[in-house]
Design a protein that fits this description.
single chain; about 475 residues; alpha/beta; 13-stranded mixed sheet; ten-stranded mixed sheet; 12 helices; 25 strands
Length: about 475
C-alpha cells in the first residue's frame, strides 16, 4: 500500500493555512451578520430580502431527527462569515497572495487548469480567491464566475434561477444556507455550445469553528454540453465545523451535463449539503461523487425529471472510518413519461465507521414507460462497523420498469488467503479488493479525482489491517 499513497499527504488537508482576516464574524448568527454579508457584496435589495426571509425560516425550523445524530453540532458556536486579508476573485494566479496560493497549489490548483480545464475557481473561507475562464469559452458566451460577481454582472439572469430548484424553506440547513451564503460558482452554457473541457472549483475551509456556505448555480441551455468538477477540504480541529453549501442545476432540452465531486472534509466537520437538478426533455444529468473524511455527512443529490425522455444517473461512493457517519444516497422524481434513471451507490466501512444509503425513487401517475434501476453495495472490513440501507420507492403508475438490488458483505478470508498465497501482504490484499470494489465509481471520476480518492482511502486504511 505504500506505493498507493506516494505523492499524497493527509497533512495537506488537515493543516490550516496561516491567514490574517479583514473581518471575522462573532460566533452565532444574527441579522446584523446577514446584513454585513449582503452589504459587503453590494447585493440588490431582493437578495437581502430573501436572506432575511430565510433567516426567519431557519430559526423556526426544527433540527432533522431522522438521520445521523446532530446533537453535538452547536449552531451558536459556528463562525458564519469571515473574510481573509487578501484580494479576492483574482483572474491571474500570480496575483493571489502567496499564503493562499500555496494552499491551493499543494492541492493541485492551478496545475490542473493549465493541463486540462476550461476554467477554475478557488475559494478560501467565505470568499473566492481566484476565478478564471479561458478565452476560448468566453468568446462563445460561456459565463463562469464567482457567485458574488455573477450577481453584480448578471443580476437578472441570476434572479431567474436562484433558489428555484432548492427553495429557501426546503429544510433547516437550506434556510440557513440562503441566509448566509457567500461565494460559490455561477456557470452558464449558452444554447448549442459544447464545452469539451471541464471547469473546476475548489472550496477550502481554514479556521476553527468555521462555516462555509457556497452557492453553485449551473444553467445548461438547449443542445449544450458541459461538465463541472468540485473538490472540498478542511483542516482538522477539536471543535466542530459546518459545511452547508447548495447546488442548483438546470439541464435544458437535448442538453447533457456531468457534475463530479470529491468531498474530503475533516473529521470534525458536519457536511450537510444540498444538491438538486431539474432535467428537461431528452436531457441528461449525471452526478458522480465521493464522500469521505467528514465526521458526519448528510447528502442526497436529487434529480427532477420533468419532461419526456429526461434521464438521470447517480454514481456515488462513501467511506467511513472510526468516528465517522456517512449518510448518503440519491433522490429521483420521475414526473414525465419515458424518463430513465440509474442509481449506483457503494460504501465502505472500517474501524467502527457507519455508512448508510438513504434513497428515494418516486414515479408519478402518468409517467408511463419510466425506467429505473437502483444498486446499493456495502462493504464492511471488520465486525465492528455498520452499514444501513433505507430505500424508499413510491410507484404511482403501472406501466414502468423498476429494479432494485442491495448487497452487504465483508471481504472474505478466502479472498485474503488467496492473494497472500501469491506473496501479497494482508494490508495490500485488502487494498486491492477495496480498489476493485470502488472501481465502477472511480472510473467515472476525472482521472485526477479518482487517483486522489484512491490515495485518500488508502491513507485512511493504513495501519488498520492486521
Amino acid at each position: 500500500m505504500d506505493e498507493e499513497i506516494t505523492g499524497i499527504n493527509r497533512e495537506l488537508y488537515d493543516t490550516p493555512s496561516k491567514l490574517e482576516y479583514i473581518y471575522k464574524a462573532p460566533e452565532g448568527l444574527t441579522e446584523d451578520i446577514i446584513r454585513k454579508i449582503s452589504s459587503d457584496n453590494n447585493e440588490p435589495e431582493w437578495m437581502l430580502t430573501l436572506r432575511l426571509e430565510a433567516f426567519e425560516l431557519f430559526k423556526k425550523a426544527p433540527m432533522p431527527t431522522w438521520g445521523p445524530d446532530l446533537s453535538e453540532l452547536d449552531l451558536d458556536k459556528i463562525i458564519y462569515y469571515q473574510h481573509p486579508d487578501a484580494p479576492y476573485n483574482q483572474k491571474n494566479w500570480d496575483d493571489v497572495p502567496d499564503n493562499v496560493k500555496e494552499t491551493f497549489e499543494k492541492l493541485g490548483i492551478p496545475e490542473a487548469e493549465r493541463k486540462a480545464l476550461a476554467g477554475a475557481g478557488a475559494q478560501m473561507e467565505s470568499k473566492m480567491a481566484y476565478h478564471n475562464l479561458k478565452e476560448e469559452w468566453e468568446s462563445q458566451g460561456v459565463i463562469f464566475l464567482d457567485m458574488d460577481e455573477a450577481l453584480k454582472l448578471h443580476p437578472e439572469l441570476v434572479k431567474q434561477y436562484f433558489s428555484k430548484v432548492v427553495p429557501i424553506n426546503d429544510h433547516k440547513f437550506a434556510s440557513l444556507h440562503y441566509a448566509v451564503w457567500s461565494g460559490g460558482t455561477f456557470l452558464y452554457i449558452p444554447k448549442g455550445v459544447h464545452v469539451s473541457q471541464p471547469v473546476q472549483a475548489y472550496f477550502r475551509m481554514n479556521s476553527m469553528r468555521g462555516g462555509q456556505f457556497e452557492h453553485t448555480l449551473i444553467v445548461v441551455e438547449e443542445d449544450a454540453h458541459g461538465s463541472y468538477y468540485e473538490g472540498c477540504s478542511a483542516p482538522k480541529y477539536d471543535d466542530k465545523s459546518l459545511h452547508a453549501g447548495c447546488v442548483e442545476v438546470f439541464v435544458k432540452k437535448n442538453s447533457r451535463f456531468r457534475y463530479s465531486s470529491v468531498e474530503n472534509w475533516s473529521s470534525n466537520t458536519y457536511n450537510l449539503n444540498t444538491k438538486r437538478g431539474i432535467v428537461y426533455k431528452d436531457a441528461t444529468l449525471e452526478w458522480v461523487g465521493g464522500n469521505l473524511g467528514s465526521g458526519c455527512t448528510m447528502l442526497y443529490p436529487c434529480s427532477l425529471l420533468v419532461a419526456e425522455g429526461a434521464r438521470a444517473e447517480h454514481l456515488a461512493i462513501a467511506f467511513a472510518t472510526k468516528g465517522q457517519n456517512q449518510d448518503t444516497g440519491a433522490k429521483v422524481y420521475h414526473n414525465a413519461p419515458r424518463t430513465t434513471s440509474r442509481i449506483v451507490s457503494k460504501s465502505i466501512a472500517i474501524q467502527g465507521g457507519i455508512t448508510a444509503y438513504r434513497g428515494l425513487l418516486r414515479i408519478a401517475k402518468g409517467a408511463k414507460g419510466a425506467k429505473s434501476n437502483v444498486e446499493c453495495d456495502a462493504l464492511m472490513i471488520d465486525n465492528i462497523s455498520q452499514s444501513n440501507t433505507y430505500p424508499y420507492i413510491d410507484i404511482q403508475e403501472q406501466d414502468v420498469d423498476v429494479g432494485h438490488e442491495a448487497t452487504v458483505g465483508r471481504i472474505s478470508d478466502e479472498q485474503i488467503f488467496y492473494l497472500m498465497s501469491r506473496g501479497i501482504s494482508e494490508e495490500d490484499a485488502v487494498a486491492m479488493l477495496v480498489n476493485g470494489f470502488m472501481e465502477p465509481i472511480t472510473k467515472e471520476l476525472p482521472i485526477e479525482y479518482a487517483a486522489e480518492m484512491n490515495k485518500l482511502i488508502a491513507l485512511e486504511m493504513e495501519g488498520s489491517i492486521g
